[in-house]
Amino acid sequence: MNWIKSTLSYTVGTAEPEYGPEAIHPVTVQAGDKPYSVLTKDDLKWKAMQSTNVETQVFYLISPKGEVASIQIIYNNVAGLMVTCQLNVKIFNHNGKEHLWNSDPLENHCFTEDMNTLFADNLSIALNAEGDAYEIKSARNEAALIDLVVKRTAPGFQIGEDGTTYFGTDRSNPWGEMRHRFWARSAVTGTIRTAEKTYNFGTEGEVGRGVFIHAIQGMKPHHAAAKWNFVTFQTPTYSALMMEFTTPPSYASTRVNVGGIVTESGEILYAGGDNGAKYTETKEDPETLWPEPTSAEYTWGSRDGQFSAVLKGPLGERQDRIDVLYHIPGVIKSLVGGVVGTKPYIYQFADGPKDSLFLSVKNGDKKVEEKGTLFAEATFIS
């Protein structure tokens, strides 16, 4: 009966019944036995599922001058009936004014035989033979011509054995999944060229910094999560990263938090699920009625108490507020459209008030505080 209910809700778009906590198997349970595993080249393959899912690769970029941009590829399958690919490119505070934002459908997308590289008309995102760098080239939209290389400088990781939370009462035969894999610290070289200027995100002599995330939502997005929190904080020595989602009541409002901290020298100091994200101050957004964060506290820690890290303070004025249903393609809207209470908005923050944010790291007897560059998102769905 649970399978019938879930199939009906996925197909028709109705809200799900409350299955209870036994219908979700958080990846943080895996982390109890194995906090994290290091990614191999095979772990970076596109899965390209044939059932309802949204699969993404996203690159967050920080130039040596502190300019912030993101590049995202979205592979979307609706009930095995229609597949689309989309390229999203964003440069914050373009020319000191509004953000540059392009969202373009991709034509004739395909994968290499090893599923590590995606091609489309005027675009390629190629993983190299060593599995440690992506070359991103795009002339899909002349408003942002991309020629970049993102090379990890610390091992990639996933939480637990496979980085995946499973949905369904039978763990061995799930009806949905949520998966995240991370490069928390990368060196960036190359450019994004716009009509007004060329953004230099790094050269061999002065590289930029990057974060790469490969994620899969193997079910309708509003069924998997009611809200999200994401943060990355890049300092000269450390790269901190955290991704958290909270399920709807259908899966007992379960909170799943994964993250880690790596160093400039290429060491994974910590990766696991003993983390927390909370907004210590909020204000009601009068247009959406969501509680817009104004201050946050993010914590990372290990169960043996040998490692902990804290990032807290004011987020500053939001950089952007994204009405997801306004921006995404119509075919993806069909995944969430018509569901009562679904009103997805993303609040984005970068840097916060100058010099107000420090990452405090305790590793054994060593304690360090460092300033850095923040990028954070708070997403409210239902």
UniProtKB/TrEMBL annotation:
Q: Which Pfam families does the record associate with it?
A: Svf1 (PF08622), Svf1_C (PF17187)
What family is this protein classified in?
A: Belongs to the SVF1 family.
Q: Which domain of life is it from?
A: Eukaryota
Record protein name field: Survival factor 1
What is the organism field in this record? Aspergillus lucknowensis
Question: What is the annotated localization of this protein?
Answer: Cytoplasm
Residue ranges occupied by any Svf1-like C-terminal domain in the UniProt entry: 219-382
Q: Which residues form the signal peptide?
A: none
InterPro entries registered for this protein in UniProt: Ceramide-binding_SVF1, Svf1-like_C, Svf1-like_N
* Keyword vocabulary terms for this entry: Cytoplasm
Q: Which SUPFAM superfamilies match?
A: AttH-like
Q: What is the lineage of its organism?
A: Eukaryota, Fungi, Dikarya, Ascomycota, Pezizomycotina
According to the entry, every stretch annotated as the Svf1-like N-terminal domain falls at 54-217
- Give the main location: cytoplasm
